[in-house]
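Suppose you are handed only two things: the residues of a chain and a line of SMILES describing adenosine-5'-triphosphate. What would the bound structure be? This form records exactly that question and the answer produced for it, so the two can be stored side by side and reused later without any lookup.

QUESTION INPUTS
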Amino acid sequence: MTPDIVVTEGLTKRYGDFTALSDCSMSVVRGEVFGLLGPNGAGKTTLIRLLLGHLQPTSGQLSIDGIDPRVDGVELRKRVAYLPGDARLPRHMKGGAVLRFFADMHPSGNLDRSLEVAEILELNTRTRVAFMSTGMRQKLALAVVFGVDTPLLILDEPTANLDPTVRGNVLNLVMDAKRVGRTVMFSSHVLSEIEDTCDRVAFLRKGKLAHRLAMKDLYQRHRITALVDQAHANMEAPETIASRIHTTIDGQSVAIVTDGDLAPMLSWVDSLALSQVRIEPLGLRAVYDAVHTGQAVAL
Ligand SMILES: Nc1ncnc2c1ncn2[C@@H]1O[C@H](COP(=O)(O)OP(=O)(O)OP(=O)(O)O)[C@@H](O)[C@H]1O
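ANSWER OUTPUT
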């Protein structure tokens, strides 16, 4: 078994003159939770649909658990459970019947598990799909997907249309899947969800893989903001930490972005004549905004 469950190499999708995904090379490691971020139209769904064989790439290579989706779609279905962004479910059926239908259809389907997930998500499975709200239909689709025992779960905006409590329950299901060794790849516009669950994140921008990030590295980054008390204060950092510090001064305000262990940096910060010092984790938001606006990510 290879360590990577998803591998793409130069994956490209064009629609006429328009390139929806350009030269995308990435991998998802077995057992991790992998986040896909990017503004509307960045190419996230295009990438996901290419991985599932729903779209044919214009060029490039891809493999899912060693399978090329273009070659063996049947085998691929055994390995991947997929939640589309716009799940279409049979409107005339009741929730419970939908769960039974999909559990019977999939080789790794498990009705009991689907019903359990429906209960966790507080879904009334006696309601007919046609009479369900958008959020209820999303819960039903999630109960279908989490009821299937595949090594890989690909979820396109799994928490869209859900209230905060249920969103939390969905994220718990993602972490449960990880705990039993499954791999989860999901797209979301909610940065806190990605921060809370993902091991690694890829940022797409205008069809290009703009940035990759391991969350454990992000946790090592902090932003220190303060006011400089002395005019023309010497803000030069000692050589031992200078390469892991990025300082910007705007009038009296100073912003220091740090990378790595904070402890040795604090004694330097303490030696500066600063007031109103605030230290906070850099957070995904800062990285997202930098990538979104096409800036280099500090450090
Ligand atoms: N069949 C198609 N023909 C032409 N262009 C398309 C087609 N499907 C998607 N696109 C374009 O490809 C780009 C990427 O779309 P995609 O759905 O992958 O974005 P996304 O990152 O998932 O966006 P969102 O966050 O809004 O769901 C968009 O500009 C979209 O208009």
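WHAT STANDS OUT: Residues 15, 18, 20, 38, 40-46, 85 surround adenosine-5'-triphosphate (CB under 6 Å). The chain has a mean pLDDT of 92.
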